[in-house]
Design goal:
Family: Belongs to the thiolase-like superfamily. Beta-ketoacyl-ACP synthases family.
Strand content: 15-25%
Radius of gyration: 19 Å
Number of strands: 19
Keywords: Transferase
Protein name: Ketosynthase family 3 (KS3) domain-containing protein
Structural class: alpha/beta
Largest sheet: 13 strands, mixed
Low-confidence stretches: 1-9
Helix content: 25-40%
Distance between the termini: 35 Å
């Protein structure tokens, strides 16, 4: 097994801003309000003809929010490119940083699954395949609108490690900050709802017909979604020197690959256990220091049980680990999922609120080793959040976030 961790003894990394585009609309406030209001955003897909599909649900960015992008970012054939740019602009604004500035080294670290491939999906119809003239075959075109709206003076990195993409982008940006390669890192996960993804999960019989129910005994599958999540990272001392208070801190990141199966994690959850231990070791914390585990929790019969057992094993302490998944509300936004979950985790740290398993009705006894948060959520001190993401092929990427007081100290 190969494991990669952020190194120790380097600059502490602060989260200075966050941005989001999601099924709740534009902005992090819309995302957080949907979380606390317990809104379930899954519903019939309108962008594609789903009449011949047995499961026809998805999570789309609302049409009004898509129209509103015109006043925020330049036009582009790819919705994902526009989601990314809009979330990055919000993140920089939240951090108190201008979109353009030559007196800094700003790098962009972007994770995705499909990049611009959904452009090709729009050409699929009864008359044959009408392939767009350009765009879909060049994944880095996803960054076009970002480059037009944000002055990137450092490295630009596009990552595609499956649905672990958002956490992988955060880890890459964290390493760049910690090593002094950049002063500011815009770390993003982005996805546009794709007909290919819907077709693939249909062929795997992994789609729920109506609702995603992570960790529920009657869970039947996942539902694809879309959006973009952004974390703006800086060295803690740089944020403080600008007269601002960090929102939170990236305490540690770890990645592993068990290469067990193309579509399923190892039955013992070895990759996840490895990354959890890696994060705790790097941060100098114990299992009992983790206040919330923001689970991958896709609602599929196989994955949730494996994840629950692995979390219980990795975080064995005086109490069962506190666990919930946001995918019951927002579906599985693939490349954007982990990044959007990280944005929610930052707010959870600030608000001392653990989001609930909103669609949970009857907990699976196989998940008895973890403390599944009730649908209403919990008001409780939240000082650290562990957030994990799986990708096809056995890849796992996990991040550990800490409260702002830790960052300022």
């Amino acid at each position: 097994m190969d494991r990669d961790r952020t190194g120790g003894g380097r600059r502490a990394v602060a989260i200075s801003g966050v941005g989001a585009v999601s099924g709740a609309g534009l902005g992090t406030e819309a995302l957080w309000t949907a979380v606390t209001d317990r809104r379930v955003l899954t519903g019939p897909v309108t962008r594609y003809d789903m009449s011949r599909y047995p499961a026809r649900c998805g999570v789309e960015v609302p049409s009004a929010a898509v129209v509103a992008l015109d006043s925020v970012v330049p036009g582009h054939e790819s919705l994902a490119a526009r989601y990314l740019a809009a979330a990055a602009l919000e993140g920089l604004r939240d951090a108190g940083l201008p979109a353009h500035g030559r007196q800094r080294r700003l790098g962009a670290f972007v994770g995705t699954v499909m990049a611009n491939r959904p452009l090709l999906d729009r050409g699929i119809g009864p008359g044959g395949l009408a392939v767009p003239g350009h765009g879909w075959a060049r994944p880095d075109d996803l960054l076009d609108t970002l480059r037009k709206t944000v002055q990137v003076t450092g490295p630009t990195v596009l990552l595609a490690p499956g649905c672990a993409a958002g956490n992988s982008a955060i880890a890459a940006g964290c390493r760049a900050i910690a090593s002094g390669e950049v002063d500011v890192a815009v770390c993003a996960g982005v996805s546009e709802l794709s007909l290919e993804i819907l077709a693939m999960f249909t062929s795997l019989r992994a789609l729920a017909v109506d609702t995603v129910r992570p960790f529920d005994v009657n869970r039947r599958g996942t539902i694809p979604g879309e959006g973009a999540g952004v974390l703006v990272l800086e060295p803690v001392d740089r944020v403080v020197a600008r007269g601002r208070r960090p929102l939170a801190q990236v305490l540690a990141c770890a990645a592993a690959a068990d290469a067990h199966n193309p579509t399923q994690p190892h039955p013992d959850g070895n990759g996840l256990v490895s990354t959890v231990h890696g994060c705790l070791d790097r941060a100098g914390l114990t299992a009992d220091d983790v206040d919330w585990v923001c689970a991958h929790g896709t609602g599929t019969p196989a994955s949730d049980g494996i994840e629950a057992r692995a979390v219980a094993k990795a975080l064995a302490g005086r109490r069962r680990p506190v666990v919930s998944s946001l995918k019951g509300q927002f579906g599985h936004a693939e490349g954007a999922a982990a990044a959007l979950e990280a944005v929610v985790a930052v707010r959870a740290l600030a608000e001392n609120f653990v989001p609930g398993n909103v669609t949970l009705i009857e907990p699976d006894p196989a998940c008895g080793g973890i403390d599944l948060v009730e649908p209403v959520g919990r008001r409780t001190p939240v000082r650290t959040v562990l957030s994990q993401a799986f990708g096809f092929g056995g890849g796992v990427s996990t991040i550990l976030l800490g409260e702002a007081e830790s960052a300022a100290g």
